[in-house]
Amino acid sequence: MQIIGIGTGGSQIAAELAKHEAYDVLLIDTSFPDNLNNINTVLIEKQETINDYEEKTKLDIENKVRYNNVHVFLFGGGKTTGITLRTLEKIKDKKIIIHYVRPEENFLSNKQKLRERMTSGILQELSRSGVFNKIYLYDTTEVLKGAEVSFLQKKDYVASTIAGMFHMINYIKNTKGLFSNIEEPSEVNRISSFGMVDPETGGEVLHFSLDNVREKCYYFVMSKRALETPGVVEKINNQIQKNSEQASFKIIDSEWHENHVYVEAFTNVVQTTQNKSEK
């Protein structure tokens, strides 16, 4: 699987995924830290505006992309996002999945807010129309919710959390399950997000609070003890089904002592800041 990180934030998430042999990682940015071990990088010239990045940055990464499935990670608000569309145009024959991270709005300038909304809207519309296969949305505020991390630790925490969630669900999808009725979501539902479910209460927390969720897939990672205890899996599943009519799930066993439940939610509705503010 091919992973591409665009800009500082996207590259940090991609670099986290480079720790796993399952991924071939490519980073694109104006500078890189010194501790990148054997990760492919593309250095681009720093520009003044997002339009300059779009017009002046000429990249052809076709010969660096080895796999058909390409997952692209980037944060909104930054100027380097201007290279995204032209760069991905060169590999339009690939199955491109966008992973878009919304920064904390309180830390964005007015110009950054405008860039974030523009980038988010364009990428969602292109995914919705089928130019990109799918888009996963993450909200930094939601990722940080409940975490006790300092200001200096935030970037590392967000990058490792998003990378960890992506890797875990990818692992589950590619692992033989004890049970599965998972089906591909409807072709129109191309806007998505990941999240966690409390196995005790069934409460869900998505990494991006999606409006108008149409479908959900649940992934149960269950301990041997839970699988051998009558009614445990059924109880969790009943809690989930109460909250979601269009739901499917997969169960795998684990050496972990605790049970973990992940969720993947899908919609066909473009998510906007206005939608969130009206809640």
Chart the SSEs and their pairings.
Elements: E1 2-6, H1 7-17, E2 24-29, E3 40-43, H2 50-56, E4 69-75, H3 84-89, E5 95-102, H4 110-128, E6 134-139, H5 140-144, H6 154-173, E7 179-180, E8 191-197, E9 204-206, E10 215-223, H7 224-228, H8 232-243, E11 247-254, E12 260-267, H9 273-277
Parallel strand pairs: 1-2, 1-4, 2-3, 4-5, 5-6, 6-8, 10-11
Antiparallel strand pairs: 7-11, 8-9, 8-12, 10-12
Helix pairs in contact: 1-6
Could you give a short description of this structure?
This protein has 279 residues and is an alpha/beta fold. Helix content is 32%, strand content 26%.
What does this entry look like structurally?
This protein has 279 residues and is an alpha/beta fold. It has 9 helices and 12 strands. Strands 1, 2, 3, 4, 5, 6, 7, 8, 9, 10, 11 and 12 form a 12-stranded mixed beta sheet that branches.
Descriptive keywords:
alpha/beta, twelve-stranded mixed beta sheet, 12 strands
Write the H/E string, N to C.
EHEEHEHEHEHHEEEEHHEEH
Q: What distance separates the N and C termini?
A: 38 Å
What value does the Rg take, in angstroms? 19 Å
Q: Uncertain spans, ≥5 residues at pLDDT below 50?
A: none
Give the overall average pLDDT: 91
Helix coverage percent: 25-40%
- Percent of residues in beta strands? 25-35%
Number of strands: 12
Query: Strand pairing plus helix content: what structural class?
Result: alpha/beta
- Name the overall outline: globular
Largest sheet: 12 strands, mixed
Q: What's the helix count?
A: 9
